[in-house]
Amino acid sequence: MKRPRDKDGMHTYGASKGWLMSTTSATEIQPPPVMDEGSYPVAALAQAMLASREAGALLLERIEFGKKKYGTALHTHNGRDPWIDWLQEQLDGVQYAAQMLKEETWISKADIQVAMDLLGAQMQALSRLG
Fold first, then answer.
1. What's the CA gap between 26 and 88, in Å, rounded?
2. Smallest Cα–Cα separation from 114: which of 49, 55, 59, 56?
3. How many C-alpha atoms does 74 have within 13 Å on its Cβ side?
């Protein structure tokens, strides 16, 4: 289901439908996640999106980390805009990549393959949105 957009192409807010306004803000602060009756975990879908066992194992580690840190795994309809969360994480990732280039960091071919799997899964998901 697609979120409605206003005349400027921004996602509009509609509390009855659970839509949140989406901006391209790199610094927008979002509320802590909340559990809703319509919420469900995203871990199984995220796991299915990955091609390699190595990436899947790292994802499971990250899910467990999130459960310990936030008391729950990531789930839908949590009061946050997933686009903003995703955008901000990607902007940080670009900076980490630049740091690795500047520091001439050596990365194994296996680790690069895991990174490519993670990026591929995100690209596939993005191609289905919008």
1. 6
2. 55
3. 17
Which residues are bridge partners to 75 per DSSP? 41
Window from 25-34, 44-53, 118-127 with minimum mean pLDDT: 25-34
Mark residue 18 as left, alpha or beta (left: phi above 0; alpha: psi -120 to 50; beta: remaining).
left
Say if residue 13's pLDDT is above 50. no
User: Could you identify the residue written with the tokens 């630049």?
Assistant: 98
Q: Amino acid identity, residue 54? A: E
Give residue 24's pLDDT band: very low, low, confident or very high (50, 70, 90).
low
DSSP state of 38: T
Residues of the chain by 3-state class (helix, strand, coil), percent to 5: 50, 5, 45
Looking at every residue in the chain, the average pLDDT score rounds to: 85
pTM across the whole model: 0.77
Place of tokens 């979120």: 3
In total, the chain counts a number of residues equal to: 130
88/128 Cα distance (integer angstroms): 20
